[in-house]
Amino acid sequence: MPALPRSPVPGTGPSMRKRRDDNPKSILTHDTIELASGLVDQRRYRQAFRLLLKAGRKGESAAFLNLGHAYDVGEGIRKSKRKALYWYARALEAGDTAAAHNIATVYRDRGDVVRAIRWLLRAVALGESGSNLELGQLLLSRLGQPDEALACFRAVGSQESAANIEAAKTWAAVAEGLIASRGRPQDNEMPPATDG
Fold it and tell me: What Å distances lie between residue 97 and 78, 106, 124, 149, 191, CA to CA?
């Protein structure tokens, strides 16, 4: 199912996944996820949501992240951040590390930067290197920490989408510019007096 990015950079919003395990029990789950994905492609969100909810209630973990996403963005159901967090937490418990990033986006959207950063750090620790982009953006724009942000932008992995890699390079250049400008007097400032 295509993710609907909610952040200025494509791919940094909540994500959805199509996942298939080798477990024979997961074949039904895979078919359900594929069918739901097809319905989303046809813009039949309500039907897709019903399929996912049925699978999620049966404990089919591949549906958990997608249910969280549906509640998060209001795709096929009324938005509910509380229910989104519930399904994202279930996805994380089931081993889907992208859920940690998605939990962070919920807190970011609520304006809870501290919790968002904690969850992004957790996502990075779980191997979600793309979460470094969102983390760096928060550190730079909300907390004014260009050194830490630069480290995050540089840590975006080569396996990420081309858009995320390019965005990380652009943001890194912004952070580098801010770091470099710290040592120079601003146009409206007088340079320090020298003896002589």
Answer: 25, 15, 9, 22, 50
Burial 156-175 (b: 16+ CB within 10 A, else e): beeebeeebbebbeebbebb
Specify the CATH number for the domain of residue 57.
1.25.40.10
109 and 46 both lie in a single domain: yes
The helix/strand count (H/E) of the chain reads as 9, 0
> Model-level pTM?
0.78
Q: Which domain holds residue 53?
A: 1-113
Query: How confident is the model at residue 12, as a pLDDT?
Result: 44
Question: Alpha-carbon distance 149 to 81, whole Å?
Answer: 27
Q: What is the pLDDT of residues 92-149, one digit of tens each?
A: 999 999 999 999 999 999 999 999 999 999 999 999 999 999 999 999 999 999 999 9
